[in-house]
């Protein structure tokens, strides 16, 4: 099955999905029963990363059954990067098969931190379509590409780490090279029910996270991404985000300026009434009753989280911290984890901007604590 000329990535995805659905191939691929155990790269590998999707369940089982270390990315990277799957002692094959399911991944896993110095010997990814040249198209969400880039950033993989995809034969198609971007992950081997393809792909794999492709929304959903960004920023790398300069108009970088809530900036023009927009404001609550704004400023500076300006709400025992953009706000939240002032542990949360009226009829553009 070959894609028609002038197609997009989504065209190819739809063509593959329609073909597999019409021929009842939804439960495929199942080549691992014959291919993976005899696959040379698999034999040599000690630590193997396999994506968490259902089609790779048997691949995860064979990793566990072969007494190798199995790493599975956390779903949508919301709670970290990896989980190490650790079956119970003396686990039978039936138990190992359960460990390889999505439920088993939740029940038998332990998080792997960024400082674990893990080295991955083999990467197994799913694909919607792949070419014999090693060019790959995923589901369109970009998680496999991002997972690989994050592994590069933490030193877990290198350009020499083999990348394998397991697909049905109908998913091996010609893919125009013009569809590929620098952040797209390529594969070295393709396993199908009938053959093993060595792609010989010479196109470089991602050399790390391309921060200009990362949005503030993604940063907000993935704490591990925020941690990696802080590390790379401290190392002097360019970590400018895709929407770095999107901020609320009227925000000024007058350091240490204190304003009342009445002077908060209005929303950018074109906002939909009542709709949340990305906030560059952080709310700090549960401050001591006798706290002073100068004391808070000093404590924030010591944490490396000094805002561009601060709105003091002493009677409410809180303050709004205004940063230049959402990315800086998230960075501040990361640095203020466990933040204490006096004997109180502060509540730190992203504030939300309301398009028309805030909670309980608040004014347009007024931040409020994220519930």
TrEMBL record:
Coiled-coil regions, chain positions: none
The name this protein goes by in its record: Methenyltetrahydrofolate synthase domain-containing protein
Pfam families from the UniProt entry: 5-FTHF_cyc-lig
CC per GO annotation: cytoplasm
Highest taxon of the lineage: Eukaryota
Gene name per UniProt: MTHFSD
Domain RRM: 280-353
Cited InterPro entries: FTHF_cligase, FTHF_cligase-like_sf, NagB/RpiA_transferase-like, Nucleotide-bd_a/b_plait_sf, RBD_domain_sf, RRM_dom
Entry keyword set: RNA-binding
Region annotation (Disordered) ranges: 257-281
Keyword RNA-binding in annotation: yes
Molecular function terms, GO-annotated: RNA binding
């Amino acid at each position: 099955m070959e894609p028609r000329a002038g197609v997009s990535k989504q065209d190819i995805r739809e063509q593959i999905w329609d073909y597999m659905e019409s021929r009842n191939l939804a439960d495929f691929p199942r080549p691992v029963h014959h291919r993976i155990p005899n696959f040379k790269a698999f034999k040599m590998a000690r630590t193997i990363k396999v994506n968490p999707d259902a089609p790779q369940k048997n691949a995860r089982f064979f990793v566990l059954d072969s007494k190798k270390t199995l790493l599975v990315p956390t779903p949508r990277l919301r709670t970290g990067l990896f989980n190490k799957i650790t079956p119970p002692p003396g686990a039978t094959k039936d138990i190992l098969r359960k460990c390889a399911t999505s439920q088993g991944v939740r029940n038998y896993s332990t998080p792997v931190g960024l400082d674990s110095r893990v080295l991955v010997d083999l990467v197994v990814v799913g694909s919607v379509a792949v070419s014999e040249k090693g060019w790959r198209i995923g589901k369109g969400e970009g998680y496999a590409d991002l997972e690989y880039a994050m592994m590069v950033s933490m030193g877990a993989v290198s350009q020499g780490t083999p990348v394998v995809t397991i697909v049905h034969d109908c998913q091996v198609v010609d893919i125009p090279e013009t569809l590929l971007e620098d952040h797209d992950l390529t594969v070295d081997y393709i396993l199908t029910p009938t053959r093993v393809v060595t792609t010989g792909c010479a196109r470089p794999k991602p050399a790390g996270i391309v921060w200009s492709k990362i949005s503030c929304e993604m940063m907000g959903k993935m704490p591990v991404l925020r941690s990696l960004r802080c590390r790379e920023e401290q190392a002097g790398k360019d970590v400018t985000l895709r929407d770095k300069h999107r901020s609320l108009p009227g925000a000024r970088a007058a350091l240490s300026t204190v304003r009342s809530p009445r002077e908060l900036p209005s929303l950018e023009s074109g906002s939909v009434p009542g709709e949340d927009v990305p906030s560059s404001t952080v709310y700090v609550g549960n401050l001591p009753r006798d706290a002073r704004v100068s004391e808070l400023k000093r404590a924030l500076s010591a944490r490396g989280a000094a805002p561009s300006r601060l709105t003091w709400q002493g009677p409410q025992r809180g303050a709004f911290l205004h940063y230049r953009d959402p990315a800086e706000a998230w960075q501040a939240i990361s640095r203020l984890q466990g933040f204490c002032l006096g004997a109180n542990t502060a509540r730190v949360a992203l504030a939300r901007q309301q398009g028309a009226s805030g909670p309980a009829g608040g004014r347009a553009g007024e931040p409020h604590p994220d519930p």
